[in-house]
Amino acid sequence: MANLWFIYSARMSGNPSIDIERRVPTRKEASVFRFKTALLQARRMIQDRASDRVRRFQPASELVDVPVIARSETPLWTESEPRERFLVAGKIQNLRAAISNLNGVEVPAGEVFSFWKHIGRATRRRGFVEGRELREGCIIPNVGGGLCQLSNALFDTALQADIEIVERHRHTQIVAGSLAEHGRDATVFWNYVDLRFRSAKPLRIDARLDSDNLIVELRGERAPSRTFHQIKLGNGNSDQIKSCATCEVGDCHRVVKPTSERNFGRSAWLVDEYIPEFDEYIQRERSDADLLCLPIDGKRFRKPNYGWDVGGFKEVRQSYVVTAVRAYRSRKLAAQGAARQKNLLYMYEALAESYAQRLAYDCLHVTVQQDLLPFLWRNGHLGGRTFDVLMTALPMAQIQSKLDRAAALHPDSPTLGDFRADPALIAIETEALKDAKRIVTAHSGIASLFGERAALLDWKRPISKPRVRPETAKPTIVFPASTVGRKGCYELREALQGLDVKLLTLGPLIESGDFWEGFDVERGATDWLERADLVVLPAFVEHRPRRLLMAAAAGIPVIASQECGVSNVKDVTIVDTGDARTLRQLINAALERQPGKVN
Length: 599
Prior knowledge:
Largest sheet: 7 strands, parallel
Strand content: 15-25%
Distance between the termini: 96 Å
Number of domains: 3
Shape: elongated
Radius of gyration: 31 Å
Number of helices: 16
Structural class: alpha/beta
Number of strands: 23
């Protein structure tokens, strides 16, 4: 490093006549460097094994609600040069892998925290890739490169919290935009260049990535202020730092492709159950370089519920095992109830983790189906990436609120209070949706929640066929759902009291067995589309209004709540949920226009 220091000193002296080219290390010098580091690594390993002062601590929850005493937020995408993009993406992937071993760790009072003891050695087998590493005056590609951004942030928060620094090493040169510019950096190199600190009080480390930043927080009780020795940084010079991605020194053994990575990056599409509107959207928006992850190829295996169009993608990955397990578990559960809902969440997480293992670090933008979002977000797989969400359902927080309202209106219902999602999972989804770049949906009710971020798709309406309605003695009303509280069956029952109509219900009877007692009811009619005079669905929650679309396409009047998401469909009348009186008025008005009148 002497030659680098000489150049730096000469330039700082203000002597314009001194213009010395930096000499790159030879292969021999690089080999010597690796030999020396191996010796130092072995010495540190022996020292740590001989001492019980440094150990690894596990994630816990005892301090999860304790106040934050220090916070560091640093940008991820700090390099504007296109040829550097693949190294920055590699750095971000390395941060994802490292944070999975660090987030939530709680350090007892008086114990020494070691960066490397918790992160472990950066290897490809553990998910690390080539990222930006500053070495001997150059930014070079190296597996695990970029972890200094995390060690910098930890050191910065430790200083803010007045925590004793046991071991810290400064960078020999300063990268523009880093914490080193402010003297709050801590370089690390497995395993002998470490960052270690000790708190007099119990301490929790929270670390995460959003789409743009690395965020590190310390939780605990601030210790009394102390004075400790801090190395004073010299003035580094980022102008001297060159990158292997852009360097034009052709005989350097570390040079990587200088121009071929200019168009680095692609998108990934993570889908679950087939939705025709999303299938058309994906085919319209995808590029030939993109990755598609789906449960199985539904067209190949004749599974229409996974019938996505897989054409045009560079890579298509399937999750056979998770899909098979989900199908097996689902067959053993009832169609309604808490056990089924818990199983759905469990399998969504399993599928999300399966997809996460297939997300290469060059997938810089992700479009993810809503069911998978909370788990990908919670486990850090979307950190450092931009992402869109394909939404078919209201956010969980909204669903819970609507179910609570319905349960208050109908406290005797056995279904309206049988399941509520974990509040922590609801909070995670809420946070993830705030960070989403775009919300893609055909559901008008969902789109209304997200303003300019919403991309409202047109519903894929079925092709209507001429229908020959049979003559009936009285009007026929279709309730196109199961008899369950969240679909508005209580409101429909109240609205139909005293009306001389035929009621067709298209799903199982899940409320009490005598729910429709006193009504002329027929369950599960397959020819409902030919017989219907009116279709009514005053649901509190409805995510897939396919039967409403079929009815509208066939010219059948439809009355539905805003929660059904079809406000943008022609000839649909909207009614407020829980308003049985208005619903009765609308039903009467619709049937007045039919051949059989109701008084």
